[in-house]
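Re: your question from the hallway

Yes, I did run it. Sequences:
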Amino acid sequence: MNSKLNRTHFVEGLTAGIPIALGYIPIAVTFGLLARSADLPFYIPALMSFFVFAGASQFIGVNLLSLGVSHGEIILTTFILNLRHFLMSAAISQKIPESVSKAWRAVLAFGITDETFTIAALRQEESLSRYFVLGLNTIAFAAWNAGTWIGLFFSSGLPAVLQSSMGIALYAMFIGLLIPSCKQSRSALVVALLAASIHSLIRWLPVTASISGGWGIIFATLISAGIGAYLFTEEN
Amino acid sequence: MELLEIFVLIGGMAIVTYLPRQLPLVLLQNLKLSPALVRFMKFIPYAALAALIFPGVLSSTGARQEAAVAGTMIAVLLAYFELNLLLVVTGGIAGALLVILRFAY
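Structure:
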């Protein structure tokens, strides 16, 4: 009976992750193509997608590799870029029941990306089934790796026009997640507007424009969530 | 490039990516957070989502910024009416695609 319920949660996770898969495939195909055009042996991007599983870092990693940048520097850049997942993992830990073992948590942690995080974090349930999160992570991971291999071995990939318009897919998913929450809660709306404004300032002001993409998102998130926690002391 | 060097590089990238994902999930298991910190955590998803969307979305379709704007507007509209996420995504793609095709001819 219980295993049947677990399977239901797993399938729910897979289904909830379909928009992620739709967004990941064209990006991963591009990643495979880029790695090939940089003349890297196929196993480098294939191993990256399997073991690193982090979009932006992989693009930058392959790019820096082809430019001959030192490996230490590539690892440091990857670290800074992915430090934001520390915040996301902390937020997700609030929704994982205490009874879920450390081993399970360690497995689920591997699949935390911007996209799986946002889907999981904005679910209505107070606490999430570990099988739901596993399903969500599985479809995202599978799509990312399948896309990488498609890019590596079917070099023509998707038509360029379709590919550039599909670049908006994951952003549209973020919008689809954020807007309904902002309609429900004024505090969420205020925090979201703050974060978008702070991030734009960081990107556009000449003084802060050199801050890396990873830090920009971290600062904008920390500052606006902090202001929100200070301003809104009760649920509204 | 030495094969070993490549494995060390990918291994290093994998470790520095995995640790920030893993540590909070495993370490915060039995930790009771103060109410202020719980509120802070509750706001993280909205803050992170908005920071991820903007201004990045403007360059999501390459050089075609007008395509990104059109796709965003359609996605916002569909999201406002709380349509299924998949519809919001396909609507956004379709909006961007139409603008790119329109300008291609």
